[in-house]
Amino acid sequence: MRIYKNIQKSEWPQLCRRPKLQTGTLDKLVNEVFEKVKTSGDAALKAYTRQFDKVVLENLVVGTKEWDAGVEDVPEVLKEAILRAKKNIEIFHKAQQSEGFKVETEL
């Protein structure tokens, strides 16, 4: 994380720009993950969870009690932020399906 202090207003646009991503590289990685999950199923999910989340899962199923307890632990403000982010992600990716797009998201 970068922390900026006392930034000139003229620098704001540069700092707020989204980073550019080489979509070809990303597409290749995503397709590799999908293919691995398609061919190896749960074993691939467990391997990726171990690799990226540093967690070893014995079971991929979340029980009802565990789920409900987790939901209760999430503050309402965070639930609202997650739903807003979900909506923004859906809007963004729907716009990606066509060429040349402008996306407006909620604040």
From TrEMBL:
InterPro entries to which the protein is assigned, alphabetical: Hstdl_DH
Pfam families linked to this entry: Histidinol_dh
Entry's Gene Ontology BP terms: L-histidine biosynthetic process
Keyword rRNA processing among UniProt keywords: no
Keyword Transmembrane helix: no
GO molecular function: histidinol dehydrogenase activity; metal ion binding; NAD binding
Segments passing through the bilayer: none
PANTHER family noted in UniProt: HISTIDINE BIOSYNTHESIS TRIFUNCTIONAL PROTEIN, HISTIDINOL DEHYDROGENASE HDH
Protein name as annotated: Histidinol dehydrogenase
